[in-house]
Amino acid sequence: MAATAITTTTAVTQLSSRSKRSSTLNNSNNNKNNNNNKKDKSLSNGVNGDRQAMAGKKWCNDVDNGGGSFCWNASFIYWTLDDVVYVARYHWMPCVFAVGLLFFMAVEYTLRMVPASSPPFDLGFVATRSLHLVLESWPELNTLLAALNTVFVGMQTTYIVWVWLIEGRPRATISALFMFTCRGILGYSTQLPLPQGFLGSGADFPVGNVSFFLFFSGHVAGSVIASLDMRRMHRWEMAWLFDVLNVLQAIRLLGTRGHYTIDLAVGFGAGYLFDSLAGKYEKSKRIEALPHKEALIT
């Protein structure tokens, strides 16, 4: 019986050691397989990631110096004809600007520049040549239009001051102050020559033929500032009236050679720019005032 027990114990021990070796080998093989699978998955993910980066429109590379990274979109590389049609249809404005860029690059690099001894070329002067001849030959009409233009300038000035003093809305006034200060800096920095054929009038504003800055047009910018404020207050009829009068004012200024075309174009843009800056200024001051108001309440 003792021999039988010893034999049984020995057999069990051998079986146990064999099973342990077998399980160890199996675990080792499983680990190797798992590692191989992980490597395969990582390689697969890397390949898929590269494909998605190329097709998913975003690439990122590590920066050698600094340890950061930079990314860029390259989706246009994979555009099809349908994509091009889609962009041209739903994003037509940037496409028009792109064509304009190419066109004016060709114009700029092939255009003969105006010599220093010649007067500046102005397309607005060419377009209003007939009006200029009429005003030159009819001084009374020129004086009448100058007087009407002065009335219009008085209208926009009155409105801008009114909304501040009476209605308590200073944005238009702040915008006008920003605009005229910037106009003075730019006008003094680059003093353009008076256009040939300038038709001044004693009824014009500034009164008479006193000197004034050509760049940029304060007449046009002031009218835009007033019109934008009217639109904020839903005074649509007044805004449209000011816009129409502003266009007529610009045509008259070209006809009398009181401004270059670039003065008027920048005047329109300046009105929008300084109105936006005045709005940001007001917003910043309201944010600064919030803690003070909360302190007063508490």
TrEMBL record:
<dbReference type="Pfam" id="PF24788">
    <property type="entry name" value="AtPDCT1_2"/>
</dbReference>
<protein>
    <recommendedName>
        <fullName>AtPDCT1/2 transmembrane domain-containing protein</fullName>
    </recommendedName>
</protein>
<dbReference type="InterPro" id="IPR056361">
    <property type="entry name" value="AtPDCT1_2_TM_dom"/>
</dbReference>
<feature type="transmembrane region" description="Helical">
    <location>
        <begin position="144"/>
        <end position="165"/>
    </location>
</feature>
<feature type="domain" description="AtPDCT1/2 transmembrane">
    <location>
        <begin position="121"/>
        <end position="280"/>
    </location>
</feature>
<dbReference type="GO" id="GO:0004142">
    <property type="term" value="F:diacylglycerol cholinephosphotransferase activity"/>
</dbReference>
<feature type="compositionally biased region" description="Low complexity">
    <location>
        <begin position="15"/>
        <end position="36"/>
    </location>
</feature>
<dbReference type="InterPro" id="IPR055311">
    <property type="entry name" value="PDCT1/2-like"/>
</dbReference>
<feature type="transmembrane region" description="Helical">
    <location>
        <begin position="172"/>
        <end position="190"/>
    </location>
</feature>
<feature type="transmembrane region" description="Helical">
    <location>
        <begin position="210"/>
        <end position="228"/>
    </location>
</feature>
<keyword id="KW-0472">Membrane</keyword>
<keyword id="KW-0812">Transmembrane</keyword>
<feature type="transmembrane region" description="Helical">
    <location>
        <begin position="90"/>
        <end position="111"/>
    </location>
</feature>
<keyword id="KW-1133">Transmembrane helix</keyword>
<feature type="region of interest" description="Disordered">
    <location>
        <begin position="15"/>
        <end position="47"/>
    </location>
</feature>
